[in-house]
Amino acid sequence: QKEVEQNSGPLSVPEGAIASLNCTYSDRVSQSFFWYRQYSGKSPELIMSIYSNGDKEDGRFTAQLNKASQYVSLLIRDSQPSDSATYLCAVRESNDYKLSFGAGTTVTVRA
Amino acid sequence: GAVVSQHPSRVICKSGTSVKIECRSLDFQATTMFWYRQFPKQSLMLMATSNEGSKATYEQGVEKDKFLINHASLTLSTLTVTSAHPEDSSFYICSATPDGQETQYFGPGTRLLVL
Fold this sequence. Notes:
The complex is a heterodimer.
Chain A: E1 4-6, E2 11-14, E3 19-25, E4 30-38, E5 45-50, E6 54-58, E7 61-66, E8 71-76, E9 85-93, E10 99-101, E11 105-110
Parallel strand pairs in A: 2-11
Antiparallel strand pairs in A: 1-3, 3-8, 4-5, 4-9, 6-7, 7-8, 9-10, 9-11
Chain B: E1 4-7, E2 10-13, E3 19-25, E4 32-38, E5 45-51, E6 57-58, E7 67-73, E8 76-81, E9 90-97, E10 105-106, E11 110-114
Parallel strand pairs in B: 2-11
Antiparallel strand pairs in B: 1-3, 3-8, 4-5, 4-9, 5-6, 7-8, 9-10, 9-11
């Protein structure tokens, strides 16, 4: 059974700080990794996708992937109150269109 | 691009009735769509994979006769909750993957309340 685990929250950071979110996965053949943001009462929206080892940056967000360690992370730089949400890590196996989701980490950015 | 819509956004129904939820990909074709359910303060639970032109694939524990899925075209999948009961009250979210891509894009969700 594919498992995706995220660091337990909630995570509270002051405005302007870096929020660091971690995710580990159990299935070694996983090839595609995604971070989604979900505001309370809303559906998930895609923030980042990453497929290769290393870092991928998009604005204030940086995703990091280490397939050998089965680890993917998301850094949010210069955190803003609007970043307060639940962040979901999702993993896709190469031969399966399905995503396995972590339980999510709730981030609160204090003004 | 990659916009997914759902209708209705919110529905209240009486116990024993059936409710149909539509999921549309507005600017792309999607052979595969997914239906999820999310209870308060819990993560997404995949219910089924909807395949255009063929039967849906249901996850373990999801009753296919209760949650009817029809993927009638490359831009439309419907989920019908038959004989709804209060325990079916939840947030139902669909997602779609553009053909040839890997990313799932989510619809805005449908909040179902069964009285």
